[in-house]
Design goal:
The complex is a heterodimer of chains A (114) and B (111).
Chain A (H helix, E strand, L loop, with lengths): L3 E2 L4 E4 L5 E3 L2 E2 L5 E7 L5 E9 L2 E4 L6 E3 L9 E3 L8 E8 L9 E2 L3 E5 L1
Parallel strand pairs in A: 2-12
Antiparallel strand pairs in A: 1-4, 3-9, 5-6, 5-10, 6-7, 8-9, 10-11, 10-12
Chain B lengths: L2 E3 L3 E5 L4 E8 L6 E6 L6 E6 L3 E5 L2 E6 L4 E6 L8 E7 L9 E2 L3 E6 L1
Parallel strand pairs in B: 2-11
Antiparallel strand pairs in B: 1-3, 3-8, 4-5, 4-9, 6-7, 7-8, 9-10, 9-11
Classes of the chains: A mainly beta (114), B mainly beta (111).
């Protein structure tokens, strides 16, 4: 099946620990994005990547890091420097950087830091 | 930057019509998207407007006026399954596909 996979759906971590959220796609899309969603708020962009081995900070990159070593994968690490990491994290992809195509979203990972 | 406003919540009866407004302020504009998001799930694409006018897709229609910085999503013949959050998102120019999202409008459909 073609699609975007984010696992696990629910993740629990202790405060002060780094955690890596996975995002894998087999849609052959060039662009990938990470968003964070908090209750009552819209999606906010954390990082994005237009091509392998290249990525850019979004609006709320502090306390997060990413890598893009393969076209299919764009993992997000939530570090201990992120002040309030508990949130719903969504990964999205798009065929190419510019242009009118919509973004496609993965099922999301709900991270709870205890 | 972008400022995107949409109502927090709307309630309507099954079979009725609901119109969700979205206003935006932007220094550059390259398209407006509407997404539907059920609780705890991923957003799914509904519509895309880049030129002024109305786009119709079955029970859902979306309208754009670039001069007014205004869009609406019209949901007709409401069904219980339409109860969800509806997200308005703007793509600025030279944004490499990045989207700026509004906070979402929670639509509650009652029997």
């Amino acid at each position: 099946d073609g699609g975007i996979t984010q696992s696990p759906k629910y993740l629990f971590r202790k405060e002060g620990q780094n955690v890596t959220l996975s995002c894998e796609q087999n849609l052959n899309h060039d662009a990938m994005y990470w968003y964070r969603q908090d209750p009552g708020q819209g999606l906010r962009l954390i990082y994005y990547s237009q091509i392998v081995n290249d990525f850019q900070k979004g609006d709320i990159a502090e306390g997060y890091s990413v890598s893009r070593e393969k076209k299919e994968s764009f993992p997000l690490t939530v570090t201990s420097a992120q002040k309030n990491p508990t949130a719903f994290y969504l990964c999205a992809t798009k065929p190419s950087g510019q242009g009118g195509d919509e973004q496609f979203f993965g099922p999301g990972t709900r991270l709870t830091v205890l | 930057g972008q400022n995107i406003d949409q109502p927090t919540e709307m309630t309507a009866t099954e079979g009725a019509i609901v119109q969700i407004n979205c206003t935006y302020q932007t220094s550059g504009f390259n398209g407006l998207f509407w997404y539907q998001q059920h609780a705890g799930e991923a957003p799914t694409f509904l519509s895309y407007n880049v030129l002024d006018g109305l786009e119709e897709k079955g029970r859902f229609s979306s309208f754009l006026s670039r001069s007014k910085g205004y869009s609406y999503l019209l949901l007709k013949e409401l069904q219980m399954k339409d109860s969800a959050s509806y997200l308005c998102a703007v793509r600025p120019t030279d944004s490499w596909g990045k989207l700026q999202f509004g906070a979402g409008t929670q639509v509650v459909v009652t029997p």
